[in-house]
Amino acid sequence: MFEVELENISKSYGSEPVLDGVNLRFERGRFSVVLGSPVSGKSVLMRLIMGLEPPDRGRVLYRGQEVTAQPAGLRNFGYVPQSFALYPHYRVFDNIAYPLILAKKKANLQARVEKVAQKLRIDHLLSKYPNQLSGGEKQRVALARGMIKDSSVFILDDPLVGLDFKLRESLFVDLRDMLSEVEGSVIYSTSDPLETLALADDVFVLDDHRIIESGSLDQLYEEPHQARTLQILGVPAANFIEGKLTGRICTTPLGECEIEVAEETAASRAVRIGVRAEDIRFQDLGTSYLLGEGRVLLREDLGAETLLYFEAGGLRFVGFWSNGEAAPIQEEQFKFGVDPSSLHVFDAGSGTRVAEARSVLVRSN
Amino acid sequence: MAEVELAGITKSFGGFVAVKDVSLHFPAHTTTCLLGPSGCGKTTLLRIIAGLETPTSGTISIGGQDVTRWPARRRDIAMVFQYPVIYRGLSVFENIALPLREQKLSKQELTSRVEDAIGLLGLERSLKMDPERFDNGTRQRVAFARAVARRSSIILFDEPITNVDPESKFRLKQDLKKITERVRQTIIYVTHDQNEAMTLADQIVLLKDGEVLQQDAPRRVYNHPQQRFGGWFLGSPGMSFLEHPFDPAQGGRLQSDLFPFPVRIAQAQSVSVSAQTALRLGIRPEHLRVSTMPEADSVPGTVLRKFRGVAGQYLVAIKLSKHLVWAKVRHEVGKSLGETVWLRCRPEAVTVFDDQDQALSAGLVKDSPKDSP
Q1: Residue A231 placed within a domain
Q2: Could you tell me the CATH number of the domain that includes residue A248?
Q3: Listing from the earlier edge strand, what are the strands of the sheet with B4-13?
């Protein structure tokens, strides 16, 4: 049985479709991340699960029982909205207690607030106001408010959006710890790939009003079935080049390689080929690699590493190396290579993966 | 020339002190990034330089001239904001030319300045389009061109690439890099993004709580943070810190969980602590070597967490005695949580901070008996 299921959910605002036939199954005890662009409708999806908005069509189920018509107060899901959204004129205590007051469950209010505050190590802050708190403390208060109802499902709607990178970086590490302590299921939305990589057990990619792909984080990172997944799940965004597939021979601007395809077609078809930054090599270029010559556009210094944006044959690429290694790319022009087995080949029209297996070099340019 | 000098600048808003006694030098023709978290005072400082805020105390001079009381208009400064400014109903050319219209330039001069800026920013193909229809990235490039065309002595940027999509971000960074390399103006750039600062700046001014923590070349700020905060703030993740008791009577010697051997501070006499205290050892993730088997000079730790970061690298959090340290590892290290791994690092890679979080000028070395005083 799944903790939360969405069946064929659609939602429009006027003539604008936001969600169109969304099917989703969140497993119990997992940290599930819904990843989508800022305008993909993630927030609407979270509010639908929470019961803050009704769908136009479709059903929401909790442990197999339909809850579509049940109001938010009765769903017993914990909720952390975007940017925490604390009530500025309430003390921390009242901010945390608010969902219980709203649900008219005032029995043992004091004790329950104190208990959750202790768990999140904010019991010393209960009489303060939100503007007296640091970013990390605010997050704890928002989480405490989300946890006060003894829920087994926690819905976090892009809680770190808009915060400084360094604050987010430290918060998402804490967040995973705090949530694993409460042993519930987490449904978390974000447009940030680094957050997704740090937090997720399972990833659901929301794009073009639908869930286009879902699975474990490793599966989606290593072998995405949709070009769009490769593009948005990873930092920096993967490189894409256009190519052509004839039978098993894939022609790319860097050379030709042979790939194992699910279905061989006699006529050639257009493909999009994805290459992750870490799969572009600048030294020890193997004889089985596709090779090219690049010209530097920008070196971005990450401190320990460098992202190298470069141009090759009119195409733009981004590669990566650790500053600790010898950096061969001091020159404005340099050679680079790609192991064909690291290519992700997608149909250009549908964006669906065509090669299930590893590809090998036939001819490099 | 247009060097900028701030002397003892303080700015209070009611009871809140946003900028505390800041003195800074911005050399002419260089790019300085004011870097720090929200609320560090970086934007307030920028607005004070622009003349959009008046300091509570202190003076600003530009090219040796005190401009503290000068209104913004008189200061010969171009400014680019977080949200791109586009003038409605004007073409791209006119959007760029507008500030030049008040300067009584010859038509030829005006056209050539605008065209130079258009060329630098690669806006040629956008000239015929309505700038109001541009995405935020292209709008911001028009704003960059406007700032460049003015040929003011100073250009200020206030987090100019915050509100754009990732694709435009790359383009804008490339444009900014070009601007910093090609134009002769003094550039002051505000950001909370360490990577932007490291990539664009000739010098970084690191700010926290309205105070300057460090002013140095980017690699120097990264490699030699003067305060613990800088070690943490730069790098992703930043430095990990191990706290250890320190007794100055021991000739600079200390025992750290990071090393199986005793270490000591290279020039013990340079340590100003006189009483027993605690020191913190700061170590960057990339300076820790982690292996699944014991190696010479390594210490055991337990893997607490592991996940992918930028470009698929694995980050691991390792419990080392009572400390938590971060490292960057290969796929095969830390396959299961709770696994024992072995850490090794060179004492020289450590930055030592005193109990006031100030970096010691001296480094750490392995203590061998023959070095005993």
Answers
A1: no
A2: 2.40.50.140
A3: B16-26, B4-13, B57-62, B65-66
Ranges of beta strands (E only) in A65-171 are 65-66, 77-80, 153-157
The whole-angstrom separation of Cα B266 and Cα B178 is: 42
Greatest alpha-carbon span in chain A? 74
Partner A, chain B 114-153, Cβ-Cβ below 8 Å: none
Tokens representing A173 are 């590490």
The identity of residue B202, as a single letter, is D
Assess if residue A104 is contained within a domain: yes
Q: How many domains, in total, are found in chain A?
A: 2
> Phi/psi at A89 (nearest 5 deg)?
-95, 0
Taking only the tens place, the pLDDT of each residue in B87-132 is 999 999 999 999 999 888 999 999 999 999 999 999 999 999 999 9
Q: Do B37 and A164 touch (CB under 8 A)?
A: yes
CB < 8 Å to B235, chain A: 302-304
- A249: its two tokens: 């021979």
Residues 6+ apart with CB under 8 A from A84: A138, A139, A141, A142, A159
CA distance B203 to B220: 9
**Region A79-102 average pLDDT:** 90
ipTM: 0.91
Which run of H or of E encompasses A166?
helix A165-182
pLDDT, average across residues A115-132: 90
Q: Which residues of chain B fall below pLDDT 70? A: 1, 268-270, 272-274, 370-373
Burial class (CB in 10 A: 0-12, 13-18, 19+), B237: buried
pLDDT, residue B184, reads 87
Residue A339 CB partners (closer than 8 Å, separation 6+):
A279, A281, A286, A288, A289
List CB contacts (< 8 A) between B195 and chain A.
Answer: 300-303
Helix (H, G, I), strand (E, B) or coil at A184: coil
Closest residue in A to B233 (Cα) is A166
Same domain, yes or no: A155 and A282: no
A209 plus A258 within the same structural domain: no
User: The domain that contains A18 carries what CATH number?
Assistant: 3.40.50.300
Q: How far is B84 from chain A (nearest CA, A)?
A: 18
Taking the Cβ of residue B222 and every Cβ of chain A, the question of whether any pair is shorter than 8 Å is answered with yes
**B218·A198 Cβ contact <8 A:** no
Q: Which sign, positive or negative, has the C-alpha torsion B247, B251, B256, B258?
A: positive
For residue A302, give every residue at least 6 positions away whose Cβ sits within 8 Å of its Cβ, in sequence order, or none.
B195, B198, B235, B236, B310
- Among A236, A299, A303, the residue with its CB nearest the CB of B234 is A303
Q: What is residue A103's predicted lDDT score, i.e. its pLDDT?
A: 79
Q: Does A53 reside within a domain?
A: yes
The pTM of the full predicted model, rounded to 2 decimals, is 0.91
Contact in structure between A292 and A310 (CB atoms under 8 Å): no
Share of chain B above pLDDT 90, in %: 83
Whether residue A229 is contained in a domain is answered as no
Same domain, A173 and A243: no
Q: Measure CA of the first residue to CA of the last residue in chain B; give whole Å.
A: 53
Strands A249-252 and A290-301 come out as unpaired
pLDDT digits (tens, 9 = 90+) for B154-168: 999 999 998 888 778
Rg (CA), chain A: 24
* A298 contacts B199? CB cut-off 8 A: yes
**Smallest Cα distance from B4 to chain A, Å:** 26
Residues A213 and A277 in one domain: no
Q: Crossing angle, helix A92-102 and helix A109-119, to 10 degrees?
A: 120
Domains and CATH numbers, chain B: 4-230 (3.40.50.300), 238-371 (2.40.50.140)
The whole domain housing A314 covers 236-364
Q: Are strands B211-216 and B240-246 parallel, antiparallel or unpaired?
A: unpaired
Whether A169 and B236 lie within 8 Å, measured CB to CB: yes
The residue that leads in pLDDT, A323 or A271, is A271
